[in-house]
Design goal:
The chain has 389 residues and is an alpha/beta fold. It is 47% helix and 18% strand. Helix 1 (2-14) runs parallel beside helix 15.
C-alpha cells in the first residue's frame, strides 16, 4: 500500500511543483528476487553518492511470503543493508497536530528517539539447537584462543550471539549529542547495565567519554543536560514526563520503544523516520511504518482505503530539506516546509484518515468523518497550491 501512496504523493504533491532529477531503484520484493538483492546494494551505493535517499516501506519476507511470491530464498530486508552502508543513526519523532488527542495526554513536547542500528540482536547470529549439546563462545586473537562455555543443553533450544564495536557506539553517541544540540533538547541514554555488566557498560562508558570530551561545554552553554538511565526506569519516567527530550537507545530497544512513543502521540502514521550518517552528510528518509498489507488487500478488492499518508509525505519533505541544505537551495527548503504546514493544517481542519479519527472525533466517530487516503492527499494538494501562491 505504501508504494501506491508514494506514487500518489509524487504525482500530486511533489512533481507538479519541483523539478526533480531522480534515480529510481525498485526495492520491491519481486525485483529483489529477480536481481538476487543486487538492487538493494545498488540503492545503498546511490544514496551514498547523492547523499539523499527517499525510501518507500518494503516487505521483509517470512515463510508465507516466500511461497506467495515464489521467491528463490528468504531475502533480507534492504533496510539492514542500507543502514550498514550508511553507518548511521535512526531518528524518529512524531508530527504534532493541535487537534489530535494523544494516548499519552501529558506529552506536549516532542520526543526524538535515537536508535543505534549496528550489531546487537539484528546484526547477530541466532540458531536452533536441535538436541542435547554444549554451546561455546570462542575468542581468537593472533596469538591465542579462549573458549568459554555458554550453556549445556539437555534437549532442544535456541541460541544467539550478538556484538558491537566501540567505534560504532562512539559514532552513535556523537550523532545523538549533535542532534540534541540542533534541536535544543536534553539527552537520556537508557540501558540495562545492572544485568549486562560488560555489554551495556561499554555503551555507557563510551557515551560518557564522548560527552565529557566533545559536548559537555556545548551542553552547558545551551543549558542542556545528559543522563544515563536504566531502561525500565526511563520507560516509566517517559510516560510521566511532558516530553521534550532525545531518548537514545540500543537497536532492539529503540525499535520497540519508538513504536510505543509513536502510538502514544496518536498514530504511527504521524511518525517521521530518518537515518542520518554519522558524519551528518547523508540522510535516508522513509515512512516509520510497514507496507500496510491489510489495507492493500482491501484496495485490491476496490474498497475504500484510509491509510494515513503523513509519514510518507514527511519522508519526502525531510529528504528534500536535506537536499536543499546540501545545495543551499532556499526555494526547495521553503517548499518542503510549506508542504509540511499544509499537511498539518489539513489535519487541524478536521480532515483525517481513519487511524486519527478516534483522536480527533472520539471513539464514537462515524465512518463518513474519515477521508480515504486519496481524498486526504487531494485536500493537502489543494491547500499546498493555495499556500504556494
Amino acid at each position: 500500500m505504501t508504494k501506491i501512496i508514494f506514487d500518489e504523493i509524487k504525482k500530486k504533491l511533489i512533481l507538479p511543483f519541483v523539478e526533480l532529477e531522480r534515480e529510481y531503484y525498485d526495492c520491491g520484493l519481486e525485483n529483489r528476487n529477480v536481481t538476487k538483492n543486487q538492487v538493494s546494494k545498488d540503492a545503498a551505493v546511490a544514496i551514498l553518492r547523492h547523499n539523499v535517499g527517499i525510501k518507500c516501506s518494503t516487505i521483509t519476507p517470512d515463510e508465507e511470503r516466500v511461497k506467495e511470491f515464489n521467491l528463490t530464498q528468504m531475502w533480507p530486508s534492504p533496510n539492514g543493508m542500507i543502514r550498514n552502508a550508511l553507518n548511521g543513526t535512526q531518528f524518529r519523532e512524531s508530527v504534532i497536530c493541535g487537534n489530535v488527542a494523544k494516548y499519552v495526554p501529558g506529552w506536549t513536547k516532542p520526543i526524538i528517539m535515537g536508535r543505534h542500528t549496528f550489531g546487537d540482536q539484528y546484526g547477530g547470529k541466532d540458531l536452533i539447537i536441535e538436541k542435547a549439546s554444549k554451546i561455546f563462545l570462542t575468542v581468537k586473537t593472533e596469538d591465542q584462543e579462549e573458549k568459554i562455555e555458554v550453556f549445556d543443553y539437555k534437549n532442544r533450544g535456541v541460541a544467539m550471539v550478538m556484538f558491537n564495536t566501540e567505534e560504532s557506539i562512539r559514532s552513535f553517541a556523537t550523532s545523538c549529542f549533535r542532534m540534541a544540540l540542533e534541536r535544543q533538547l536534553p539527552v537520556y541514554f537508557a540501558t540495562k547495565s545492572t544485568l549486562l555488566k560488560h555489554y551495556d557498560k561499554l555503551f555507557n562508558e563510551v557515551f560518557l567519554d564522548v560527552f565529557e570530551k566533545d559536548f559537555k561545554s556545548k551542553f552547558a552553554h545551551a543549558n542542556l543536560t545528559f543522563e544515563l538511565r536504566l531502561i525500565d526506569d526511563m520507560a516509566a519516567q517517559a510516560l510521566k514526563s511532558p516530553g521534550g527530550f532525545l531518548w537514545a537507545l540500543k537497536s532492539y530497544d529503540g525499535d520497540v520503544l519508538s513504536d510505543v512513543v509513536g502510538q502514544g502521540f496518536g498514530s504511527m502514521g504521524l511518525m517521521i523516520h530518518s537515518l542520518i550518517s554519522h558524519d551528518g552528510k547523508t540522510v535516508m528518509t522513509e515512512p516509520a511504518h510497514g507496507t500496510v498489507t491489510r489495507h492493500y488487500r482491501e484496495y485490491q478488492k476496490g474498497g475504500k482505503v484510509s491509510t494515513n499518508p503523513i509519514s510518507s509525505i514527511f519522508a519526502w519533505t525531510r529528504g528534500l530539506q536535506h537536499r536543499a541544505k546540501l545545495d543551499q537551495n532556499t526555494k526547495l527548503d521553503n517548499f518542503a516546509q510549506i508542504l509540511e504546514k499544509s499537511t498539518i493544517s489539513t489535519v487541524e481542519q478536521g480532515l483525517v484518515t481513519r487511524d486519527l479519527a478516534p483522536c480527533v472525533f472520539g471513539k464514537e466517530f462515524k465512518e463518513d468523518q474519515c477521508l480515504s487516503t486519496f481524498e486526504f492527499i487531494d485536500k493537502v494538494a489543494q491547500k499546498l497550491a493555495k499556500n504556494l501562491l
